[in-house]
Write a structure and sequence with these properties.
Length: about 200
């Protein structure tokens, strides 16, 4: 969900910046630069520690915890996709087939959605696969610190946190969640590497 949300948001922002140009492009890219300059992990910890009950949102519910983490990770995950989408879209907008589509009477929305977007999805798909790995690591970190998905909902980070006291008496309690995180992240990275080889 995090990768999908961040990818869709990043594509929308990147296409808007590439198409509009001018001040909108400058503002969106300065926001992206500012987000990249911020220390992600400390900010994730601070945002995850915010008491949502003060804003009238459900507190302590599994669905609310998951939604909160998804929103927080999405807010930090769109930047790389947006920058890539903007750069790829600018390259495509300068191609002759885009000018031909405009001469043929295609509107700007049709040009973006029918001609530009399909041609930039390749590298964005690779980035989305890497975003899944990043989201797994970020969620596991927050849950390990007690700020992510709360029990009784299962989370590899929660399992690692609960296994700290059993690391000598029952080391397998920490081994298996750690192995699953490793395999999931490595799998996403390998998928991204395979997609990168397929993308022309």
């Amino acid at each position: 969900a995090v990768a999908v949300g961040a990818t869709l948001l990043g594509i929308a922002i990147g296409l808007a910046a590439a198409w509009a140009g001018g001040w909108l492009d400058a503002v969106l890219m300065r926001i992206a630069d500012g987000m990249l300059a911020l220390p992600a992990l400390p900010l994730l910890v601070v945002l995850a520690a915010v008491d949502t009950g003060r804003f009238g949102l459900p507190r302590g519910e599994v669905a609310a915890d998951i939604a909160r983490i998804v929103v927080i990770l999405t807010l930090f995950g769109w930047v790389g996709v947006a920058r890539l989408a903007r750069a790829s879209a600018l390259t495509q907008l300068a191609q002759d087939y885009v000018a031909a589509a405009r001469v043929a009477g295609a509107g700007e929305v049709r040009v973006l959605l029918r001609h530009v977007l399909p041609n930039i999805l390749g590298p964005i798909t690779v980035t989305a696969a890497l975003a899944v790995a990043g989201a797994i690591l970020a969620e596991s970190t927050l849950s390990f610190l007690g700020l992510g998905i709360q029990p009784p909902a299962p989370s590899w980070g929660n399992m690692l946190a609960n296994a700290q006291e059993l690391v000598f008496s029952a080391p397998w309690a920490a081994f298996w969640p750690g192995l699953m995180i490793l395999l999931a992240v490595a799998g996403c990275t390998l998928v991204a590497d395979g997609l990168r080889r397929l993308v022309p």
